[in-house]
Every structure is written in C-alpha cells, then in structure tokens.
C-alpha cells in the first residue's frame, strides 16, 4: 500500500468518525453511511493503482443497506422551479475536435419519449495532460463507436423508478418525484433496466447473473464508459461541455460547471430536480453533477492505442461510475473523471440513466 493510499484511508476513517451528525440515514446533505462526512476541502485524489472508494463514500457492506426509514428534511431553500429549461441548447461545434462522424444537431427525433438519439462517431476519450484536476487513469486515446443508440435525456427520476420497481430507495425523497433516484447500486440499476425492458415487451439485456448479453441487445442497459463519455462530451474536448475547468474545488464557484450541473459549489448539499441546468449539444441534461451515474464497465486501465466499441475488462471487482455529484468537487465532475466501487454499493450520490441500442 502506498503512502497515498494510507493517507486516504486515514482521512476516510477520521471523516466517518467525525461526521455522523448530518448523514442521509438521519438527515439531509451528506453521503449515506454510518457516519456522514463533512464537505471535502479538496477534491478526492485518484490512487496510482488499485480501486478506492470516492472522497468520503462508505465502504460497501456485505449486504447492500436498506433505504432509510425517513427521508432527509427538505433543504432550507427550495431549488429553482423544476424543469426550468434554458432558452436554447448550446450550439455544437462546426467540427468536433477529433473529426467526429456525426454532429449532434443533425440527430433525428428519437422514437422513445424522454430519450435522445446519439449517432455513431469517433472521439478522443480521456483528458489532456494539462487539464486541471487530471488523474493518471485518464490517458487519451481514440475511440470509434459504430452503433447509434438512444440515451435517457436525464437521470432516472424517483417517479420513474417507482413506476417500474414499486418503491423509492432515495434518501432525498423530500426533493420530489422529479429529482434523481439515488441510493441505487449497480445491481439495482441493471435490475431496473431489465424490468423496464420487460414492461415494454423487449428482450432483457442482462441474464440471471447480471451479465450483459451483448451491446446489440433489444432492451435497456447501462452505457459503456466510452458511450457515456462520448455522449457527455457531445463534440467537445474540454473538461465540461460548457467549457474548461477553472477551479477544481468547491469554492470559488466554477462558472462553466455552474452552467451545466449541481456540485458542492452550488447544490446546497442536496440533489435537485433533473433538467434544470444547460443541456449539451445532444440535448442531454445533468451529465456533470447532481448524482453520479453507473456505467456498465468493470474498472480497468485503458488499453493503449485506438479502440472500437470498447467494453472494458471481461471481469473485475469494481464497477465504474461517472459524472460527479451534488456533494463532490468540480474536479470530479469532469467528463474524463473515473470512479469505481463494488456493484452492491448504495449511496445518496449514486444514480444512473439507461441506454438502448438502435
């Protein structure tokens, strides 16, 4: 174990011991767990090697924890009116930085309500060496995606989860039906995808052991890491689809991230209704912040060189989640940032959005 791992583990242990007064098990505004951490002074630092739980995320138990008996109290100040849409979506670039084969503004209307059609294309995955807040596992490499797909325009909401699964595991229930469902594990997200497929008469994408049957499956599934980042960037190569990162921490406010998503600098320590911030050029909301989003891949180092339809390692111990969240710093919300944990982990910063291949 490196000194870096030892320091991070000591920090997490101390944080969990001191922060028990505001966890989502008995109140709002903190990651779920036996002890709620204080907001980080600085963004979590990715390890040189080996998986590490996020900033102050609790270690996953042998069995995933149950949803809290009572939802956290509503925040002192209510968020802006739900679904306050911007006047216009940002204009996609004249040419994507890596000669992407499709422009988002040319995408036809998707057949599924609430989803956005994403055309196949080529992009550079990862971050440049000089990007503020960059980690070592973000090596840039060219990726080609050969399939069109549709991706949910927002994170799955509490109302949408309840309509399919019949319950609401969220800690922030007081946020409302239009807020993202959270406290869902990777396993839970996959079960939702299969249940949604069955509800619509589609063949499921995951077998009884939650193995993906193939990228071309008929029903709903989680996006691969590459599909998620391609969709999040929407032809851009900056840290956020609204521009470069100006400050990796919570304060002062990063204006580019503030335009795109909810993070520790503007969230008031709670989730917010989906679709309030500026969408990207595809028409996707909340790809930066609000809640992290599980993706399909096991965590692993990127393969060197160009890749076509990458799916990550064949097996592993940790699943990847992307996008940042209400509790975390601007560094973590960057399009290239990668975090991972056990598939059974549930926490109040974890959500997802489904994909369907076309």
Written account of the structure:
With 358 residues, the chain is low in regular secondary structure. The chain is built from five helices and ten strands. It has a four-stranded mixed beta sheet. A three-stranded antiparallel beta sheet has the order 1-4-10, with no helix packed on it. The N terminus is likely disordered.
The main sheet orders its strands as 8-7-5-9
Would you state the CATH class? Alpha Beta
User: Averaging pLDDT over every residue, what do you get?
Assistant: 80
CATH topology label: paralog of FGE (formylglycine-generating enzyme)
* CATH superfamily grouping: paralog of FGE (formylglycine-generating enzyme)
Shape assignment? globular
State the helix count. Answer: 5
Order of SSEs, N→C? HEEEEHHHHEEEEEE
Write the SSE topology.
Layout: H1 3-18, E1 115-118, E2 121-125, E3 141-145, E4 149-152, H2 158-165, H3 186-199, H4 225-233, H5 255-260, E5 292-298, E6 307-308, E7 319-322, E8 339-341, E9 350-351, E10 355-357
Parallel strand pairs: 3-6, 5-9
Antiparallel strand pairs: 1-4, 2-3, 4-10, 5-7, 7-8
